[in-house]
Each structure stands twice: as structure tokens, then as C-alpha cells.
Queue: 2 jobs
Job 1
Amino acid sequence: MATVILPRSLVVLFPGAARKVEVDASTVADAISALDQRWPGVRDRLCERDTALREFIKVYVDGLPGELQTAVAPGSTVHILPAVAGG
Amino acid sequence: MSKQLLVLIGTRKGAFILAGDPAGRGGPDGWHLSGPLCEGWPINHFRHDPASGALYAGGGSPWYGAAVWRSDDLGASWTHSSQGMTYGEDGPAMRAVWHVEPVGDALYAGVEPAGLFKSLDGGATWAHVEGLTNHPSRPSWQPGNGGLICHTVFAHPSDANRMWVAISAVGCFATEDGGATWEARNRGVRVDGLPDPYPETGQCVHKMVAAAGRPERLYQQNHCGTYRSDDAGRTWICLDKGLPSTFGFPIVAHPTDPDTVFTIPLNGDDRGRYVPEAKLAVWRTMDQGNHWSSLRQGLPSSDAYVGVLRESMARDDLSPFGLYFGTSTGQLFASADEGGSWRRMADLLPPITSVETALVDA
């Protein structure tokens, strides 16, 4: 299992969602699919057209920048962050 | 059962509801402001659907994308969705929802980049109305300052197959077959500065409304003038004479008189885009645009460097009807006597992008 850390601004959009979630995933895309199964609509908030992360969504896998296809190992920690943007 | 009047306010930082007794529209007491709703997302349009009782808010988060929010308990709790709201793998990314329009059992959303989406389940899932973006002019569509946005959607009151949309900076389109095919309807609408100032498309329509009781009559406030059409948008007549400017955003129709509309001119696209001479006024015609007069009583008469955006003026359906508008600097003004006098109902809100009203059970 991998641990996914979600931002507050995403969690509040989905009643019952948690900031820290355990998922069975081999890629970031798998992890987001697992989140979407638990809370339908999460993928639409994080991904553009299912093929890429949204412009201002950043992912780090074990501390390194990642994309949807980035590998996730058992025990990995995946941070999903809203980028510093807006006003 | 007693009624409660809701003034639904969309802003750059969430939606707000100002609620009060309809009898108290003329005074400052008894109104309660709630918000920010929708988790502080930028909301471009916030409205009530009288048929379902739902509140809908359309907008887009810089981080999480476009969505339509729905509340079935007058704002206490919300859901949101953009499922199906996509142009496909090869299409442009969806940025925001700009207008939400219930039409019979359907719900339509005008979006950025410009297009139209339809939901048959109250906004839970969406399907692209491809006929609009299949229009032959699509490759030439260009954004206005606010983006390439479909910001106006409405249907004929007795024939849902007849619909109109307005897109900045592209113009007015109409369908007679429920959205399968669309026709550009911009004849007579200027595009100042172009070598040909009357192209088929390319007009920067800012807002368009149908006249009360006469659905073939439309009015539009454009980047380049104010216009009326008496033939469902096929041809347009310029109504600029008597107005202080050719530039403005909102236009609101009278509830029963097709000859009366209200607009709020700004001083010009290259002059700051605030109200002329920094004096806030709503302008009204009562003779289909032949003559205009200003309504100013109670509004700031100096140093008002404010603008009013396309969705930010509305009326209620009470008698006499009330008018409301919000400014780009966060003030909400209201009139309980059809524009005769005004008062400030809220201040210090985020920039206001949308104002609508709803009369609901208290």
C-alpha cells in the first residue's frame, strides 16, 4: 500500500474524504483512480482530460516531482499539492 | 407561507446569499449575508431554478478546474460536478463555467473555452452540444479580454428547440432544432476598428436578453454599442443615441414591458471601464431604445471608480419589481421601486461577477 497525502482544499470538496489515504497503486494514475473510486469526481478535479495532471496540481512521489505515469512502490508516500498560484 | 427573498451573489472568491423579508427591500435592516459558499471558488454565475428549487453556481477553480455546483437546501450543503464536461483528448482544456440555464428538464452550461454542455440529471453528468462548436466559423473564434466564453444561454419560452447563446468575442448564435445546428446572428452589430466593421462573426457581445412577452425581441449590450433585434437576432438596430457610452456589460429586461430595458454604461474600453464621470447610474429606456434616461437617486454621485460586469445586474419578480447590481469592487446596490431610488445593501465583498434573485419559502 502507498500513502497519499491530500490538500485541505481538495478534501473539503468530498464529504468523508481524508487528508491521509492508503491506496493500492503502482502509478500515480492508479492512486488517483483509487481515490476516484472512493470519492467519485476526484479525478476530474486533479486531471485534465484524464491524460495529464491539471496545470496547477503538483505531485511528489517520495519527495520527487511526479506525473501520472510515475511509479509508486509499496510504502511510497504521494503528496498531491495545489501549486502556489492565484490571488 | 411567508416568503424570503434571496439575492444570490457570485464573486471572485465564492458565492454569497443575502436573505431577507421581501417587504424590507427598501431598508437596511433584517438582511442576513451568508458565505463564502462553494469553497471560495471563483463563481461566474449563481442562480436559482424555480422548477427544482435547486441553487446552481457555475465557475472554475484555478487548481481544480470547471464545475457546476448544486445545492438542494438553499446553500446549506453542496455537490459539484464536471463529469463529461470535456472537449475530448484532442480538444482544449476546460477552464470555467460562465452561465447555467435550466430549460425544461435540461440544464445547460455555457463554458470557457466557448461551448455549450447539457445535463439531463440536474448537473451530475454533462454532454457536449457539438452543433455549436461545429459551426464553420469556429476556427476564427477569438477571445475577448475575459476569455473565449459562452456567457449567455436562453430558450424561447414556449419552444425549447429554439435557443440563443452569446459568445465573447464571437457574437450571437441561434438554433431552431434543439442545438443540432446553429446560425450566427450578428447582422448590424459593429466591431469597431476592423476593416470590415460588420463581419458575420467576431462581435464582442457582453450580455443578451429576450424582451418580456415578446421572445422575438432581443436586446444586447456589446463592447461596441447597445442593440435591439425584433427578428430573433437576425438583424440588429443600434440604440447608442442618448447613452453616455457605447461600452458596458449587463442588460436586464423589464418583467412585462418589452419596450423597457436597463443597462449600466461604462466610460469606454480604453478609458478605464468605470462609470462615466465616476458617477454611478443605471440607464433605462422605456421606448425600445429610442430614448434613455439615468436613474441615480441614492447612488454615489462622485468618485465612483467602479465597473459592473455582465452577470452582475438582476431584478426580482415582485410588484413593484426590484433591481439589483453588484460592482467589480464588491458593493451591492438595490432598488425596491423599479430603479427609482437605490441603497447600498452590502459592501466589502470580493469583486462581484453575478447577481440573481430568488423568492423562496421562508
Job 2
Amino acid sequence: MEMSKDLLDGFSDSKKTRILTEKIKNIAQEIEEEITLMEVCGTHTVAIFKSGIKSILPENVKLISGPGCPVCVTPNTYLDRAISLSRLDDLILTTFGDMMKVPGSSSSLEKEKTRGRDIRMVYSTLDAFKIAKENPNKKVVFLGVGFETTAPTVAFALKETKTKSIKNFCVLTAHKLIPPALRFLAQSNDLKVNGFICPGHVSTIIGTKPYEFLVDEFKISCVISGFEPLDLFQSIYILLDRLKNKKARIDNQYSRAVKKEGNPVALNLMEEVFEQEDSVWRGIGVIPNSGLKIKNVYREFDAQEEIEVQVEKSQEPKGCLCGLVIQGKSSPLDCPFFAKECTPQSPIGPCMVSSEGSCQAYFKYGQKKSSKGK
Amino acid sequence: MITKSNSGEKISLSHGAGGKLSLELISHLFKENFKNKILNRLEDSAVFSLNEQRIAFTADSYVIQPIFFPGGDIGKLAVCGTINDLSVMGAKPLFLSCSLIIEEGLDKSILQKIVLSMKKTAQKARVQIVTGDTKVVEKGSADKIFINTSGIGIISKGIDLGKEKIKIGDKIIINGTIGDHATAVLSSRAGLEFQTKVKSDCAFLSDLISSILKFKDKIKFMRDPTRGGLATVLNEMVSGGNFGVLLSEEKIPVREEVKGFCELLGYDPLYLANEGKVIMVVAPQIAEKILNILRKNPLGKKAEIIGEITDKFKGMVGLNTRYGGTRVVDMLLGEQFPRIC
Amino acid sequence: MCLGVPVKIIQKNKKEGIAEFKGIKRKISLELLDKVKVGDYVVLHAGFAIQKLDRKEALKTLKLFDELEAIGNE
């Protein structure tokens, strides 16, 4: 049986979403009390803002954004190291476009590029790998950022590097894992989340099992959601329905792409190349077992271990509320710098830089305290 | 002005991207220093009178990479872009200058190709290239070739466009699909490796625009959404004013392939550059008439009324999404980079 | 956090495929999936196919919606 474009287009059907809007209004009325749902994934944050869902949700349903924005949670120290690496001679720094504008302690990759450093944006780790093969006299470092969706692609590139004996390619990893972050949020005393919208594409890799603890241990419902408007509306409806019936459950709304077992090939690759370690989430601190480190057997391709470089002492901007914003404990509007000293052109914290960061989304899509243009 | 805070600051690609940073550079450095009434209006062309004949005068530099792209080349772009800057002020474009900065080592045959393209375009548009300059710089000091064109046109009596003519209820029309040029150029750059059949919409709009100038004072304002895209020119239009813009997402024409390109790389078509598009703000009673005239022209086949001027909010651009929600459309913040997250 | 797009595999050569989406084409890696064939739809992320799209499940999800709609109309 074949998939088709028409079938996929059905998930953007605006007639269907308008019907769901009504249903959401009705069920929210029945529940009455304040409901807080957290969407964990940055791509969900953007999709929600773009479709205008927030402006149609009933008063008592609040959507807050979580820490699923790799740019927002990558620590300052990582950026500072990447910047220092880019300043070395005969080194090409390759990165996804996402990291270009993120502020380190005193500079950014975009700024370094204007100073003449060889920094190249790529769409895929394999493009960076290609650059390494085409430039055998230079060292090519790839910034491995992202969650479980991206980590397998980097793992594959590392495996290829070893198999094909490529000597000049290495990765500086900052991969993080979602389930430990969810556990951290669920355990948090001051965060009252009634339901989680779980990241659809991370789930294509890890499957549904890693979320079971949310229901079993914390009795919080979660929905693995797709990214089309119908997916989002439907996922919100499902969470509200579970709340109304007081039944905590995991629902896989994105079942067309998420299998229960996830992607075993990708998971095995990750297992072969990476191991879990405690990891620092910018603004939050250490979350146990939430990061990926390159295993010893692949150590020669680990830019952290193999390339010596002087890195400036990292400093975080004082007063910036990004850490609380990504945990959903504060809104961007609560931050004293928001839309004043901290704007997308002159960001203070990473939440304002990333196109998926809550602060930039709030700024761009109009939820500002101060009037526009200031 | 050079202040303590910006000494040592470098100009970045984002300053040239056409969005907020570009505008800031223009306002703080150029406008502040070159101060005069004509420049202060910061329109696509300067408009002034010489012996009672109103003249439009404009200049633009073209540094695009790659210099040959699907649907055009840097030469055609240089001629069309300057013609369009004159046309959107209601002027009939007459004369262009053409100044080239060529990188040492450029193949003569490439230069010839570009010059022939400029000749062909100028002939079709019935403008004359009457003066110019050529400089060659050392290898590495320019990226193959940079072109600057300036242009002069005359504005007939009864045509007087400007932001101050805009009234609540006026309709906003665009002559076709957005994002084609940027998609064609970005996809032909090395490193992204996406193949698409989308061609740049690079075209001169003087004939299309002259077909509706007969409506005289019912045409209030026009602009061509080049760098920074539709979102940026509309934001510039409402900035500092006492009206806003409300767009209807369903009405904004976007090719499937452009939508696809944007979804794959995380771009937003509202911010992508166009080189053959014009937005017109017109009195509501003639909007449909204008639409019909535009649609008869090959450059206006997909023209649509995409929004209107509103007093619901001031100085902002809002968008009614196809899902029944509303959101703000801000200006381009700096250069858009592709993303995977 | 992850831009993933449903693309169709229109050509395949071992573990490399050509994907097509709204008229755009690109070479992508199929190394993260087994048993992909021409005509399959996959989720594309950062140059890799990360999962196959399942038609039956897509229909089920859309059907769920239609059932929801029917409930309201009773």
C-alpha cells in the first residue's frame, strides 16, 4: 500500500483544524481549571507560533515551551571552544546553520566568519565529511549539536571516518537526550505541567517506551505529536481529553512516523559510537545521563580530546532568565532584558538567538510587553 | 556616528541582508551624515524637481553569487533592479549608468555574456545605458564582478506616490508568487545541493506598472520586495505610521517548490528576496480593476489582493493564518541561515 | 528541535537515494534504514532518511479525526 502526497496534505487541512478548534474550546470549558501544557521541542514551538494556535486556544489552556531547543541549551563553554578552534590555522569549522548566531562569552561564529575564519554551514554531517575528504591538508571539525534525531547521523559519519581511515575529520559533540530532561522537569517542584507534547522526530528514533516513566511514575500524560497543524491541534485535544477523564496515558499521535520500537539501526549506531554522560544544559545546570560522549574506540575523532586549544574563561550574562524560560518556569515576558537590551539583533541569551527559542518566537510573533519598534 | 560602543565593531553579512540591521546602518550612518529632505524619505528612488519636471533618481549595487543563476544573471539583475526602483516611484525609466568592478582573472567571455545580457534587457525595457565606469581589482578583492547601476526617470503630472497617501481600508496587491528568486539563487549555491526547477523572477516591471498608472491618485504607494522579502518592505512601510497591515495567509501566492525549499531548510518565504515583484497599495474601489489589468500581463498572471491597511494596530504587520489564528510578521532580523533544528 | 520533512524516494542506489519533495530533489543517505524501496515515503532530517512513513497509520490518524468530528455532530 502506498503513501501519497494527497494523504500527507490532509494534515494541513484548515477546515479540519477549525473543527478541532471548536472541540478544544468545548472540552476546555468542561475542564474549567487552568491547564498548562508543555511542548518540549523547538520545532513544535515554531510550528505553534506560525499557525497562530496560541491566539485561538481558550483562556484556561496555557502552552509553555520546554528545553528542546539544542541551540538554547548548548553551554557557553562549548561555543567558546568552537570559536577558539575556528581561530586555529589550517582548520575548517563546519556547522549546521543553527549555531551561527549563538552568542558565546565574547563572540559568535557569525562574528568570527566576518573576521575571516573558515567557518562553513552545512545541511548534513555528510557534507562536512565531504569537505574533509576534499581538503586533506586541513583539519575539519564538525559541531555535533542536536538531540536523538541528529545524533545517529553524526554517529554514522564517525563510523565512516573510522572505516575509511579518514584522518582529518573530527567532531566536537554536544548532543543531548530528551527523556532525562523530561524526568528533570517532571521532578521539579515548582513546575506544574499537566501534559507534555513530546518531540515527534526524536521519537522516530527512540520510540515510545522512553516516555512511559512519565505516566508510571508521575501520572502525567504525554502525546508524541507530528508537526503539521492538524497534528498539533489533535495532540492538544488528546491531552485535554485525557485530563478530562483523569487518565494519564501516552498517546502516539505521530504514528505514521513513530514506531513503538523507534529506529533500531539508528539506536545501534548511537550505541556503537556514543556513551551517556552527565551533561550541562545552559541555564539549567547538570542533568544526569543526559549527554552523549564519543566512546574511547572512536576517541581519535573526538575534537574535545584530540585538539588542544586555549579557550577563554566562559561567562554567562548576569540576569538573563533563559534558564528559567527553557524550563517553562518563566515566560520571556518576565525577563528584565526581554525586548529591551535583549533583541534578536543584539541577543543576550541563547533563547533570543535561536529561531526556536521561546524568546525569539515571542519577539518575532508579537507577544511583547513593550510596543514594537523599540 | 562612531560611538564608543561601535568602534571596533565589524560590518557583518547581516548588515547587508536588507532587514533591521541594514536599516539601522542606513539610518545611523548615512542618513545622519548626508542629511537632506530628499534622502530622509528613504524611498526606493529619490524624487525631486528640476525646472518643474519631477525626476526620480536611484542607485544600486549588485554583488550576487553565483553570477549566473536559473532565470538570470548579475547583468540582467542590475538593469531590472534599477528600472524597478524607478518604476515603483511612478517614474518612466529613461537612462542608466553602469559601473563595473571586475576581479582580476575573470574570463573575458563571462564579462561579454554579462554585458550582452544587460544590452538585451535594456533594449527590451527601452532604456539606454548612457555612461559608466570600469575598474579592475586584484584577485581576491572582489568576487568575480560587482555591478553598480544608477538610473533616471521622469514622473508625469498627477502621479505622486508616498506613504503619506495611504489610508485605512486601502488594499495591498502583489503581482505574483514570492520567494522564487531567493530559492533559485540559494539552491544553485554550492553546499546545499538541492535541485529545483524554480527560476528567478528577475524582470523589469516598468511596463506592468505603467499599465495601471492611469488610476493616478488612487495608487498610493508601491515598493519592490527585494532583499528582506515581502515582510520587510511591509514593515518598513508601516514603521512610524498610524496604521498597520493585515495580511491573509491564504491569499499570498507561493509556488509549491518554494514552499518545499523553505520547509526543507527552515526558511520563511515572507522573508525571501524577489526581483520581479511589486506590492501596490491602492484605493479599495479600484483594487479589483487593477487585479484584472495585472492578470492580463505575463508578469501579473498570479496577482492577488493579499491584505489591507488597518487601524486595528499601528506600525505592525499582522497575518491571519489559514488555521484561523493571527500572528505578527516582524521584519527580517539579519541574514537567514538554513537550519536543521 | 528537528526539522524533518516527508519526502518520496524516487531513485535508489544501494544506501543512497534521490528524494523528492514538492518538486525539489536531493541525494540523501539511506544508511539509517533497512529495506527502503523506490516509492516509499521517509522522514528526511539533515540529509538522512530517519524513518519510513506508514500509510495505514496516516489513514488511521486522519480517521480518528473524522470520528471526532462525527461525535460533535451527533
